[in-house]
Design goal:
The chain is of the alpha+beta class. The protein contains nine helices and ten strands. It has two domains: 134 residues, Jelly Rolls, CATH 2.60.120; 88 residues, Orthogonal Bundle (Arc Repressor Mutant, subunit A). The strands form three sheets. A four-stranded antiparallel beta sheet has the order 2-6-4-5. A three-stranded antiparallel beta sheet has the order 1-7-3.
């Protein structure tokens, strides 16, 4: 169940067999979540954190008029709410955007790990730090990039994150979001989304068909999205 998590961590640092076994011992319960079902509800006080084994999930907030803003996308190998361990109360929701297979780590077990395994504690901390780095990139993209550049940046990011956990084949990856959900990610109307997507199709840099994204010209897509992957911290070094 934790192969994708270990791949995620080993893209950033060495993970010993002892550490991998320890994670396996505390992430043992699993669940299957239907699409559109909440993994975590805003205002809840979870006693465990959720590892996404397979599928796509999203953090989100609603505003007063009922519109939803998606603030993060999570893929295989991500802890969707590791920060709930120290924060206690969730200030946003997490929803499954596809059928999701998840595994649970009790906070009591995470507490023991962080108190007795300092290196593993730093690696788990690193995951939350990277979440923050991704949020900053999303804020910059939403506030300062064109929607065409914003969309290109997002697909570059997802391609790289999914490559790390072995979910990309021939520059293609599963992307089961509806166009309405994608509009919630970018914070635009459905009409604007379709126009923006068509711009990227016209440049022949990607295809979005049958719940699959295929990147046709990665270098051009990176250029359009002004994508620099440093914020994902994909270099193996001591932490």
């Amino acid at each position: 169940m934790i192969e994708s998590l270990i791949a995620n961590l080993r893209a950033r640092d060495v993970v010993s067999s002892h550490e991998a076994q320890l994670l396996s011992s505390i992430i043992v319960r699993q669940r299957w979540i239907a699409a559109d079902e909440d993994l975590v509800k805003e205002g809840s006080r979870p006693t465990y954190s959720i590892l996404l084994v397979d599928g796509i999930a999203a953090r989100y907030k609603f505003v007063e008029d009922g519109k939803r803003q998606i603030t993060a996308l999570h893929v295989s190998g991500d802890f969707v709410d590791l920060h709930a361990f120290p924060l206690k109360e969730m200030d946003h929701g997490v929803v499954a955007l596809s059928p999701c297979h998840v595994a649970l780590a009790d906070h009591s077990d995470l507490k023991k790990v962080t108190e007795t395994e300092p290196h593993l504690a730093r690696l788990l901390w690193l995951l939350t730090v990277i979440d923050g780095a991704i949020h900053r990139e999303w804020i910059v993209a939403m506030g300062r990039r064109s929607k065409k550049s914003h969309m290109a940046h997002l697909f570059c990011e997802l391609l790289l994150r999914l490559e790390v956990v072995g979910k990309v084949e021939n520059s293609s990856f599963s992307f089961p979001l509806t166009q309405l959900e994608m509009a919630d990610v970018l914070g635009i109307s459905l009409v604007h989304l379709n126009k923006t997507l068509q711009l990227l199709r016209d440049e022949k840099v990607l295809q979005w068909t049958k719940q699959t994204i295929t990147v046709l010209d990665l270098e051009r897509l990176k250029s359009i999205g002004e994508f620099e992957p440093g914020y994902l911290n994909l270099r193996v070094e001591p932490r």
